[in-house]
Amino acid sequence: MYDLRCLAVLLLVYLCSGASCTALDNRIGDEKEALQTRFNFFDADLLKELSKSNRGNFLVSPASIKTLLALVLEAADGSTFTEIRNLLRLSDNITDARMQLGDLQTALQRSVSSRVIVDCVAQAFVSKALVTNDTYTRIIKDYYDAEVNHQDFNQPQIVTNYINSWINTRTRGLIPTLLDQSFITRETYSILVSAVYFDGKWKKEFQRRNTRSRCFYPEPDVDCQLTPMMTKTEELFYRFDASLDAHVLQIPYQEERFFMVIVLPFKKDGIKQLDLDSSRLVFPALIQKMKLLEVNLTMPRFSIEFETKLSSVLQEMGLNEVFSPKAKLPYIFNNKQGKISAMIHKAVMEVTEKGTKAAAGSGASVVPLMHGLDSISLELNRPFYYFVCEADTQAILFMGRLSTMEETGDQERAGPGPDSTLESLQSNNQLTTSSNQRVPPQPANKPNLQINPTAHVSHGALNYPYDPAQSSSTTRRRQRVF
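Structure for Serpin domain-containing protein, as requested:
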């Protein structure tokens, strides 16, 4: 038995017309959406497991992990194949399953503007000493655009350096080293690798001159962590998810089929409950029924590097046989069985004023928070979840949780400004009007209300700003600050 290590068309023609064709198209579309939603449950399961096992920041690429598991799936047979397929929530039909897994590569390989660069690649590094199965080679090429690369595994240092160089090139230097010198053993005959690279500029960039040091609170009773906070005002898709008690915000990149989704707990200590509910952060349901609003957004500039022993995470999710002597992986080589002895995953992300760079190797009803709001202010000054997504496939390229700024390396890097000292930050926790009158702090876990000194209207016990320059006599412009 060899040692396998991993780093994270049927055409039917119908003759129909009118309503019958429309009904057929709708049914096929509904079935495809249902399959994709089921497929995305893997991402939610993965997110829940990571939130349980990591107290601080974490970042992974579901796209990279799924691509890696696709290469393992094609090598598997029997109960091992079934276990991987069930984990990924794939269709029972192997052709449909392959198309589900391969659609992301197809979508990402489409040409995009030079302002958004995306690369999703995979490679099977195999031993020259064994004969590779031609069917396996053809399938991973046809469906996942993955190549078989023959190496001399009797020279582990050379192979390690070669694979690290390949990863470094495909991630544009964001991940210069994935494997250490001990990763390849004498029993290793194959290493399966996948990598995803993303470099996207915001549709509307944050202005660097507006970035100021402000407080980020990992927990309500934890001292302020001074953090460079970026600020901009933009029309964005937003909704409040009552079942999650959280704000959901969508921030587009210049290629608008790519976007970042922010899930910010409403309560200051809401991340704990959101961690418990993380398995419900499923796409595309999470971003449905959103409303276009003017958003005054303040969010931290940060960078994260995260590495995890992926095999342990997947075992907690129910993938066990593939790591055991009972594994059935007969299809990479002719007449050679194997098992997976190690699986690792490494991801890096930088979020700045210009955009996002990232790389990785490896029914409750929904209601708006307040009907009739025209604008809101959101400050991401407490832990939140984030996702980088692709619209056509509803796939998540990267996802993670930002819990603390101590691990990001971005503290105290913002330029000077009115909020650049802790003293001014603490004083600014109380709102002021343009006449500099102090407004008492709002009760804990309640959103602050920003009052326009020109005029305001009353709505029950709450006050909303009213701007006569932008509203008719029958329209009240409403804004909430969170």
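The chain has a mean pLDDT of 75.
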